[in-house]
Amino acid sequence: MARLVEAGLAQFAGLPGEMTVAAWLAGRRHMDGTPGLACPPGLVSVDVMLADGALETLGPFGASGGLPLRSATGQALIPALYMLSGRPGAAWCRGQAAWPARYRLDALNPLPPAEANLAGLLAGHEGALAWIESVVLQAVAAAGSGQVQATPYPAEARALDAHIKDAFDPAGLYPEAPLP
């Protein structure tokens, strides 16, 4: 993170200098827990290897464009995640003061005026959904602490997480994320 701060990405100024970008993105501790704010400020896109070995770029998605999904796995995964985001468990999670699930499905339904950014799906995933190969960041104004407060892990959140994990990693290749 120290090199990013030196390069002008002030949003990383309060983080440990030796922390890697992958550790920052995968960790929950430095992510905003507010529903609808899954995508960390300045995160543009993430190149990942999915559980079946498919390479995919997760980034801006929707009306303002972005890159098309390049793998059949990604083309099946994203519609499945949008279907999950319409389930009652996802609506229940969005209605909480802090996002209670491990995986940030709310990246698909951000607070206006933001648009969906598929990279936000990986915020705080603890390495359980995909292998991060590279990350594209942009400088933004430094925000507040953004640290997640410990919240209960109710049944609705556990069920939603199980569906998301299964969509990303049906064979269980990646480890389970630790409980929040």
Rg (CA only)? 15 Å
Across the major sheet, the strand order is 2-1-3
Question: What is the mean pLDDT?
Answer: 90
Helical amount among residues, as a percent range? Answer: 25-40%
Order of helices and strands: HHEEHHEH
Structural class: alpha+beta
Word description of this protein:
With 180 residues, the protein is an alpha+beta fold. The protein has one domain: Uridine Diphospho-n-acetylenolpyruvylglucosamine Reductase, domain 3 (2-Layer Sandwich), CATH 3.30.465. It is 26% helix and 10% strand. It is built from five helices and three strands; from the N terminus they run ααββααβα. It has helices at residues 2-6, 21-26, 72-85, 88-94, 155-168, and strands at 43-49, 55-58, 131-137. Helix 3 (72-85) packs antiparallel against helix 5 (155-168) and helix 4 packs across helix 5. The model has no long low-confidence stretch (mean pLDDT 90).
Describe, in short, the structure shown.
The chain is of the alpha+beta class and 180 residues long. It has helices at 2-6, 21-26, 72-85, 88-94, 155-168; strands at 43-49, 55-58, 131-137. It is globular, with a radius of gyration of 15 Å.
Characteristic terms for this protein:
single chain; about 180 residues; alpha+beta; Uridine Diphospho-n-acetylenolpyruvylglucosamine Reductase, domain 3; three-stranded antiparallel sheet; globular
Which SSEs are present, and which pair or pack?
Layout: H1 2-6, H2 21-26, E1 43-49, E2 55-58, H3 72-85, H4 88-94, E3 131-137, H5 155-168
Antiparallel strand pairs: 1-2, 1-3
